[in-house]
Write a structure and sequence with these properties.
Blueprint lengths: L6 H9 L5 E2 L3 E2 H5 L3 H5 L10 E6 L3 H15 L3 E6 L4 H4 L11 H15 L4 E8 L7 H10 L4 E8 L10 H10 L4 E4 L5 H7 L6 E3 L2 H5 L3 H11 L8 H19 L2 H7 L1 H8 L5 H8 L5 H14 L8
Length: 313
């Protein structure tokens, strides 16, 4: 979720009913070396709490020191360790899911960070393994539990899968049965019904990523379904456009440069287009949008071409 779950995105997700926030993953080395751009990823507001700062890296000592620095500077509610990222530029630096191949190193990192953060809790995210031949999530989770990790999130794919294929919730269930700490399930959760079905695997909660990028109101839909058993319809198209416009306006206000901000939001707009009417045409327009006024024009045209059905009492 790097480049996606910034402070504004998290605030909006919180408004829609998300319970716990995690920052974009942040390089422990960047923090350790006080890299100015890296430190920007640590910014959050109190409305996002409870919030964890997510770190990645391969040096136990540096990760522990970086976590301690983050706690001193920002006072997050917890620190989260990323042992799940499959991106090659992270893996090649012995970060993310590369550490799933080296359980002794994983244990050293977990113990170093838990020790440095006490009494602030530390959580971790893993994948089910490096490859189909080396699925080791239950073992990895027990190592993390023994090292003092307070909860573990499990993405149901291997590193080699990336985001292809199906998430293996049977392995996630095995992890939930293998440890006493809370297990959070992640992978292929696109609806409230998906979440309700997967809660039967023994997990204590779920983590949403890609679904929230296109439909942040999914948190409200999940909460409503789990409470009432009723399926909420998607928000009216006009409400969806209002959310998109607000997201962009907040981003522009924060960065101060409208054109630069809108360029950086194009990929977010592409995600929002999924499930919207005339999505292909919208994506073509989003590739060139540079101002809030242009976005307003696109929204007005889309709404005019797709009027909501009238409700008659």
């Amino acid at each position: 979720m790097a480049g996606v779950t910034d402070s504004i995105f998290r605030q909006l997700a919180k408004e829609h009913g998300a319970d716990v926030m995690v920052t974009e993953f942040v390089s422990a080395e960047g923090i350790f070396r006080r890299n100015e751009r890296t430190l920007e990823y640590l910014e959050f507001v109190d409305a996002e709490r409870p919030l964890g700062v997510q770190l990645f890296g391969g040096d136990p000592e540096h990760l522990g020191e970086a976590a301690r620095m983050v706690i001193d500077w920002k006072q997050p509610d917890f620190i989260d360790l990323n042992f799940g990222c499959p991106v090659n530029k992270v893996v090649s630096k012995n970060g993310g899911s590369s550490i799933l191949r080296d359980c002794p190193l994983l244990e050293k990192i977990a113990r170093a960070v838990v020790r440095a953060c006490a009494p602030v809790p530390v959580t971790a995210k893993i994948r089910i393994g490096w490859s189909a031949a080396t699925i080791n999530a239950p073992v990895t989770a027990r190592i993390l539990e023994d090292a003092g990790i307070a909860a573990v999130a499990v993405h149901g794919r291997t590193k080699e899968q990336g985001y292809s294929g199906a998430a293996d919730w049977e392995v996630i269930a095995e992890v939930a049965a293998a440890v006493r700490i809370p297990v959070i399930g992640n992978g292929d959760l696109a609806s409230a019904q998906d979440v309700a079905r997967r809660m039967n695997t023994g997990v204590r909660g779920v983590m949403l990523g890609r679904a929230a990028m296109s439909s942040p109101w999914i948190f409200a839909e999940i909460r409503h379904f789990l409470t009432t058993g009723e399926v909420l319809p998607p928000p009216p198209l006009e409400v969806q456009w209002a959310h998109i416009a607000r997201h962009c306006a907040l981003h522009v206000a924060r960065r101060g440069d409208e054109v630069s901000s809108m360029h950086s939001l194009r990929s977010r707009l592409m995600a929002y287009s999924r499930g919207m009417p005339d999505a292909k045409a919208l994506r073509a327009k989003f590739q060139h949008v540079s101002t809030l006024a242009e976005l307003d024009k696109i929204a007005a045209e889309n709404l005019a071409q797709n009027p909501e059905p009238a409700l008659v009492a």
